[in-house]
Amino acid sequence: MSLSKHGIFTFTTLFFQLTTHGECRNYRPMQTDCTFYRSCLESQYQCGQEGYPLGYGEKYCQRFHSLNTPQSFNDKRLSTKGVKWRNRTLVCLQDELIREQFQKGFLNCENIKNVGFQTHARCYAKADPSICGLPLSDWKAIASIVDIKDYGKPESVKQILEVIVACGERTIEELLAFEHERAQLFEIYGLKTQAFKAAHISYFGAHPVPPQIPQLDEKIRENKQKLKFIESIKERGHQ
Q: How many CB atoms lie within 10 A of CB 217?
Protein backbone atom coordinates (compact mmCIF):
# COMPACT_ATOMS: atom_id res chain seq x y z
CA MET A 1 0.00 0.00 0.00
CA SER A 2 1.47 3.35 -1.04
CA LEU A 3 1.69 6.27 1.33
CA SER A 4 0.02 9.57 0.49
CA LYS A 5 2.04 12.77 0.40
CA HIS A 6 0.57 13.64 3.78
CA GLY A 7 1.52 10.23 5.12
CA ILE A 8 5.09 10.55 3.88
CA PHE A 9 5.36 14.05 5.35
CA THR A 10 3.97 12.89 8.70
CA PHE A 11 6.26 9.87 8.87
CA THR A 12 9.34 11.89 7.85
CA THR A 13 8.57 14.65 10.32
CA LEU A 14 7.98 12.16 13.13
CA PHE A 15 11.19 10.27 12.33
CA PHE A 16 13.17 13.52 12.19
CA GLN A 17 11.75 14.65 15.53
CA LEU A 18 12.47 11.33 17.21
CA THR A 19 16.08 11.19 16.02
CA THR A 20 16.67 14.82 16.91
CA HIS A 21 15.03 14.35 20.29
CA GLY A 22 17.36 11.42 20.85
CA GLU A 23 20.36 13.66 20.25
CA CYS A 24 19.07 16.42 22.52
CA ARG A 25 17.26 14.42 25.18
CA ASN A 26 20.32 14.32 27.45
CA TYR A 27 21.17 17.98 26.89
CA ARG A 28 21.66 19.88 30.12
CA PRO A 29 21.95 23.67 29.92
CA MET A 30 25.17 25.06 31.34
CA GLN A 31 25.73 28.56 32.64
CA THR A 32 28.37 29.24 30.00
CA ASP A 33 26.73 27.56 27.02
CA CYS A 34 24.24 28.63 24.34
CA THR A 35 24.46 25.64 21.98
CA PHE A 36 20.94 24.40 22.75
CA TYR A 37 19.34 27.02 20.49
CA ARG A 38 21.34 26.02 17.42
CA SER A 39 22.16 22.35 18.02
CA CYS A 40 18.74 21.29 19.27
CA LEU A 41 15.98 23.77 18.38
CA GLU A 42 17.31 25.17 15.12
CA SER A 43 18.61 21.85 13.80
CA GLN A 44 15.17 20.34 14.29
CA TYR A 45 12.80 23.13 13.25
CA GLN A 46 14.98 25.20 10.88
CA CYS A 47 13.42 28.57 11.69
CA GLY A 48 16.21 30.57 10.02
CA GLN A 49 18.28 33.54 11.13
CA GLU A 50 15.20 35.60 12.07
CA GLY A 51 13.46 32.75 13.89
CA TYR A 52 13.37 32.54 17.67
CA PRO A 53 16.16 29.94 18.20
CA LEU A 54 18.86 31.95 16.40
CA GLY A 55 17.35 35.43 16.03
CA TYR A 56 16.47 35.79 19.69
CA GLY A 57 17.49 32.87 21.91
CA GLU A 58 21.07 32.33 20.75
CA LYS A 59 21.71 36.01 20.00
CA TYR A 60 20.80 37.28 23.45
CA CYS A 61 22.26 34.27 25.23
CA GLN A 62 25.62 35.09 23.63
CA ARG A 63 25.30 38.80 24.40
CA PHE A 64 24.54 38.09 28.04
CA HIS A 65 27.53 35.77 28.23
CA SER A 66 29.77 38.45 26.76
CA LEU A 67 29.18 40.80 29.71
CA ASN A 68 32.16 41.06 32.08
CA THR A 69 34.55 39.78 29.40
CA PRO A 70 36.99 41.65 27.11
CA GLN A 71 34.40 41.16 24.33
CA SER A 72 31.57 42.61 26.43
CA PHE A 73 28.65 43.82 24.32
CA ASN A 74 28.52 47.64 24.51
CA ASP A 75 31.36 47.44 27.09
CA LYS A 76 28.81 46.74 29.83
CA ARG A 77 29.41 44.89 33.08
CA LEU A 78 27.20 43.24 35.67
CA SER A 79 27.65 43.28 39.41
CA THR A 80 28.46 40.03 41.22
CA LYS A 81 24.76 39.72 41.99
CA GLY A 82 23.94 40.47 38.35
CA VAL A 83 26.25 37.71 37.09
CA LYS A 84 24.54 35.24 39.40
CA TRP A 85 21.14 36.36 38.07
CA ARG A 86 22.32 36.08 34.45
CA ASN A 87 23.69 32.55 34.85
CA ARG A 88 20.58 31.21 36.56
CA THR A 89 18.21 32.98 34.18
CA LEU A 90 19.89 31.67 31.02
CA VAL A 91 19.68 28.12 32.36
CA CYS A 92 16.02 28.68 33.28
CA LEU A 93 15.13 29.89 29.78
CA GLN A 94 16.64 26.79 28.19
CA ASP A 95 15.17 24.44 30.78
CA GLU A 96 11.68 25.79 30.08
CA LEU A 97 12.05 25.19 26.34
CA ILE A 98 13.52 21.71 26.85
CA ARG A 99 10.63 20.78 29.13
CA GLU A 100 8.10 22.01 26.57
CA GLN A 101 9.91 20.25 23.73
CA PHE A 102 9.88 16.83 25.35
CA GLN A 103 6.51 17.05 27.07
CA LYS A 104 4.46 18.39 24.17
CA GLY A 105 6.74 19.13 21.25
CA PHE A 106 6.57 22.30 19.18
CA LEU A 107 4.16 22.51 16.27
CA ASN A 108 6.20 25.04 14.31
CA CYS A 109 8.54 28.02 14.59
CA GLU A 110 5.74 30.37 15.62
CA ASN A 111 4.91 28.02 18.49
CA ILE A 112 8.56 28.06 19.61
CA LYS A 113 8.56 31.86 19.60
CA ASN A 114 5.33 32.11 21.59
CA VAL A 115 6.50 29.62 24.22
CA GLY A 116 9.93 31.24 24.36
CA PHE A 117 8.57 34.70 25.04
CA GLN A 118 6.16 33.34 27.65
CA THR A 119 9.12 32.06 29.68
CA HIS A 120 11.03 35.36 29.79
CA ALA A 121 9.18 37.24 32.52
CA ARG A 122 8.87 34.10 34.63
CA CYS A 123 12.58 33.26 34.44
CA TYR A 124 13.74 36.86 34.89
CA ALA A 125 11.68 37.31 38.04
CA LYS A 126 11.88 33.87 39.64
CA ALA A 127 15.66 33.53 39.47
CA ASP A 128 17.44 33.92 42.79
CA PRO A 129 18.34 36.74 42.86
CA SER A 130 15.39 38.19 40.95
CA ILE A 131 15.96 40.86 38.33
CA CYS A 132 13.90 43.18 40.56
CA GLY A 133 16.55 43.00 43.27
CA LEU A 134 19.48 43.94 41.02
CA PRO A 135 21.06 47.40 41.19
CA LEU A 136 20.13 50.04 38.64
CA SER A 137 23.51 49.67 36.92
CA ASP A 138 22.62 46.04 36.12
CA TRP A 139 19.21 47.05 34.77
CA LYS A 140 20.93 49.50 32.43
CA ALA A 141 23.44 46.88 31.28
CA ILE A 142 20.65 44.37 30.61
CA ALA A 143 18.55 46.91 28.71
CA SER A 144 21.54 47.98 26.60
CA ILE A 145 22.00 44.59 24.97
CA VAL A 146 18.48 44.53 23.49
CA ASP A 147 18.23 45.80 19.90
CA ILE A 148 15.95 48.80 19.41
CA LYS A 149 13.95 46.91 16.77
CA ASP A 150 13.13 44.20 19.29
CA TYR A 151 11.62 46.73 21.71
CA GLY A 152 8.97 47.45 19.09
CA LYS A 153 7.80 43.86 18.63
CA PRO A 154 4.44 43.13 20.32
CA GLU A 155 5.75 39.99 22.01
CA SER A 156 8.78 41.89 23.33
CA VAL A 157 6.64 44.73 24.64
CA LYS A 158 4.40 42.26 26.47
CA GLN A 159 7.23 40.49 28.27
CA ILE A 160 9.04 43.76 29.03
CA LEU A 161 5.89 45.19 30.59
CA GLU A 162 5.30 42.04 32.62
CA VAL A 163 8.77 42.30 34.12
CA ILE A 164 8.79 46.03 34.81
CA VAL A 165 5.29 46.01 36.30
CA ALA A 166 6.41 43.34 38.76
CA CYS A 167 9.65 45.17 39.49
CA GLY A 168 7.87 48.50 39.72
CA GLU A 169 5.53 47.19 42.40
CA ARG A 170 8.45 45.74 44.36
CA THR A 171 10.50 48.94 43.97
CA ILE A 172 7.64 51.07 45.27
CA GLU A 173 7.16 48.73 48.24
CA GLU A 174 10.87 48.93 49.06
CA LEU A 175 10.90 52.70 48.66
CA LEU A 176 7.99 53.12 51.06
CA ALA A 177 9.64 50.75 53.55
CA PHE A 178 12.93 52.67 53.40
CA GLU A 179 11.17 56.01 53.82
CA HIS A 180 9.17 54.65 56.75
CA GLU A 181 12.34 53.34 58.41
CA ARG A 182 14.03 56.69 57.84
CA ALA A 183 11.09 58.54 59.39
CA GLN A 184 11.19 56.27 62.43
CA LEU A 185 14.88 57.00 62.93
CA PHE A 186 14.24 60.73 62.85
CA GLU A 187 11.49 60.32 65.42
CA ILE A 188 13.73 58.19 67.63
CA TYR A 189 16.21 61.04 67.60
CA GLY A 190 13.45 63.47 68.61
CA LEU A 191 12.94 65.07 65.20
CA LYS A 192 9.74 65.86 63.37
CA THR A 193 9.42 63.98 60.10
CA GLN A 194 7.84 66.99 58.37
CA ALA A 195 11.13 68.90 58.52
CA PHE A 196 13.77 66.35 57.54
CA LYS A 197 16.21 68.74 55.93
CA ALA A 198 15.98 71.53 58.51
CA ALA A 199 16.14 69.04 61.36
CA HIS A 200 19.13 67.30 59.82
CA ILE A 201 21.04 70.59 59.63
CA SER A 202 20.05 71.90 63.06
CA TYR A 203 20.32 68.62 64.94
CA PHE A 204 23.10 66.71 63.24
CA GLY A 205 25.24 69.79 62.89
CA ALA A 206 26.26 69.25 66.51
CA HIS A 207 25.84 65.47 66.64
CA PRO A 208 27.12 62.58 64.50
CA VAL A 209 24.73 61.37 61.82
CA PRO A 210 23.31 57.91 62.61
CA PRO A 211 24.97 55.55 60.09
CA GLN A 212 21.59 54.20 59.01
CA ILE A 213 20.50 57.58 57.62
CA PRO A 214 23.04 57.88 54.75
CA GLN A 215 22.50 54.20 53.91
CA LEU A 216 18.75 54.67 53.72
CA ASP A 217 19.18 57.89 51.74
CA GLU A 218 21.20 55.95 49.16
CA LYS A 219 18.60 53.17 48.96
CA ILE A 220 15.80 55.70 48.57
CA ARG A 221 17.72 57.53 45.84
CA GLU A 222 18.44 54.23 44.03
CA ASN A 223 14.78 53.17 44.10
CA LYS A 224 13.58 56.54 42.83
CA GLN A 225 16.05 56.28 39.95
CA LYS A 226 14.82 52.75 39.26
CA LEU A 227 11.24 54.01 38.99
CA LYS A 228 12.34 56.67 36.49
CA PHE A 229 14.20 54.02 34.50
CA ILE A 230 11.12 51.79 34.48
CA GLU A 231 9.09 54.65 33.03
CA SER A 232 11.68 55.22 30.29
CA ILE A 233 11.58 51.52 29.36
CA LYS A 234 7.77 51.64 29.23
CA GLU A 235 7.95 54.58 26.84
CA ARG A 236 10.52 52.80 24.68
CA GLY A 237 8.34 49.70 24.52
CA HIS A 238 5.33 51.71 23.33
CA GLN A 239 7.18 53.65 20.61
A: 15
Residues of the chain with pLDDT > 90: what percent? 25
Q: What is the DSSP letter of 129?
A: S
Whether 2 maps to a domain, the answer reads: no
Cα separations in angstroms, 30 against 137, 154, 212: 25, 30, 40
Q: Tell whether 44 is covered by a domain.
A: yes
Contact 37, 98 (CB under 8 A): no
Q: Which residue in 149, 49, 159, 76 sits closest to 115, CA to CA?
A: 159
What is the pTM (predicted TM-score) of this model?
0.71
Cis peptide upstream of residue 53 (ω within 30 degrees of 0)? no
Q: pLDDT, tens digit, for every residue of 39-76?
A: 888 998 899 999 999 999 999 999 999 999 998 988 99
Asked if 28 and 105 sit in the same domain, the reply is: yes
Are residues 136 and 164 located together in one domain of the fold? no
Domain boundary among 112, 145, 178: 145
Query: How many domains is the chain built from?
Result: 2
d(CA 237, CA 50): 20
Burial class of residue 161 (count of CB atoms within 10 Å of its CB; 0-12, 13-18, 19+): middle
**Collapsed DSSP state (helix, strand, coil) of residue 233:** helix
Structural domain of 85: 13-145
